[in-house]
User: Fold this.
Amino acid sequence: MRRLTLLIIGSLIGLSGVAQNRWAIEKNGSIVWNVNTQLPHDDHIEMSGEQVSVVLRYGVRADGSFALERSMVWPLLRTIPNNTHASLMRRFATDYAAMLLVNGRTLQHESVKQVRLDGRLTVVSEYAIGRHISTVDKRPAPKVVELTRTLFPSTTLPMLCERYTLRNISDKNIVVNIPDNKQEYHTDAAKGVDGSYTLTCTMKSAGIAELRPQETCEFSVTIQGRRQGQTEIVADVAKEEQQRLTFVKEVQEKLMFHSPDETINTMFSFAKVRASESIYKTKGGYMHGPGGESYYAAIWANDQAEYVNPFFPFLGYETGNKSALNAYLHFARFMNDEYKPIPSSIIAEGIDIWNGAGDRGDAAMIAYGASRYALARADRSEAKQLWPLIEWCLEYCHRKLTTEGVVASDSDELEGRFPSGKANLNTSCLYYDALVSASYLAKELGEASTIYKKQAAQLKQAINDYFSASVEGFDTYQYYKGNTQLRSWICTPLTMGIFERKEGTIRALFSPQMWTSNGLLSQSGSETFWDRSALYGLRGVFAAGDRETATQKLHEYSMNRLLGEHVPYAIEAWPEGSQRHLSAESGLYCRIITEGLFGIRPTGFSDFTLTPQLPKAWNEMSLNHIDAFAGGPFSISVSRRQGDSLQVRIERAGKTIKTYRCKAGETLVCRL
Assistant:
């Protein structure tokens, strides 16, 4: 399978200007690429279920034919050494269409007409049979068969499913012959934790079918993995597809965002799916994993504890909430009286750890995420379970304070890829927000909260004193002492409600040195970008009140990621990882809406502050079926009355329970 060409990469990173949208949004919420002459084109997308993940590397060649490689991952089939990357992975590129016979001949000269994404990958092609050029009049042979491929992972089984539908598009009857086909592979027993694994690729025959014009027939393919002693799954592909569609519908009908911007609405809907699907049912319980053909059956202090877990209570996806609680309880196993660093990652279904980058500020990440999760989840029993972990992490950070009052750490979430000094801005800001949330949670649980409020005030002052600087001509923050180049994580104070240097910081973030068509560069002068900081940055700029700039940049970013050359999700990074669709980044995208655009900040089990940032071009926006906080789902609608004057309605069970009048950017104190 050919890699992305330099031309496409140039377009992606803004070196060749902004490309035209390749994809379009359909009325049903899917996105579609109606294939034209802009060929060749390649892309890849990751999709996941409880026991399997697959990266589909797909594309349309210059001659119009379809190219596909399935990169299969079985997170629960562990390999040796059983480390972070020990999920069994294999690639398959079998072209099952090439095995068919139509009127005794193979399908030839494929022409892909359409590619669709809707939680599945669907590809519609047309084929001729026999020779492409007539020997009589030199005209191309007519298309005879339309073939629709639909690919998706099982929601619960270790299996990729593929459904193929053939339609006779000629004006004569045709005879289709579909063979039985089975390929079985056995892995090296010495390289598997449980010995040899069996991988089976099965083409389920439909036999012989005679099709009149416009009639159809179907067959299916499955690729599955199993341990010794387990029997091959007899797949019901129709049932598996229905379960996949049910999952997608469930997630998309929760926490529904509506605005005049169809692109942002649709990317939010897609992001909920990617954030929710990458949860694996391991022997250590449900574990949300980043994915990317590297990170499975494991949890991280940043991706899970910090990025995605605080989002799940808002979504109300129960498996997501279970995975979040499970992640925090796994980290709680490593509390210790000596206050040695908590691991960065718990791997291999929970039986081992990774701590290769030292203390990355992991305790601050965990305290920040766990306290926000507990408040929004509004489950007193869970909160009591998590409180000792939150207290321990806060105390750990307190013990790491320098003489200047900021938090020391060995590195940050980029693990040394860029310098971070002895104390970095990100870690201290995470600790600050964790202290604020902990003060609210302590009050709910009847614990002492005053100390955390006092420590938060002191830390906020220390952050402004220690990190404030003029960097490359902008009155913003140095990421660490002595840092002279702009860094993407100068956005973190804005996200945490530290606004003293917001004007200079926003100008720096959106300066030519930092902002590209792919969001924020990690460091000025580099070509590296990580979506996570861009997503934090957009959220922070909304929080700081520059809603017009933030909306414009969010729209541009969403157009690129949803409808451009590499779709449909937020990505990890470039050039590292080839822009993998890591799952937690999609959770961060959703938090731009909940915490940035709507400005929801949990302050209790039934309390939150709300800061609606309705941009001038919008007259309304709404967030429906919010599952956070006590009392069941509720909705928030914001509508313009006149100018910046807004009406905010909170509804539950179809009834308005609160109505507010405010200005855009004004903070409301809400109690359900």
About this structure: The radius of gyration is 26 Å. The CA atoms of residues 552 and 615 lie 9 Å apart. The longest helix spans residues 425-445.
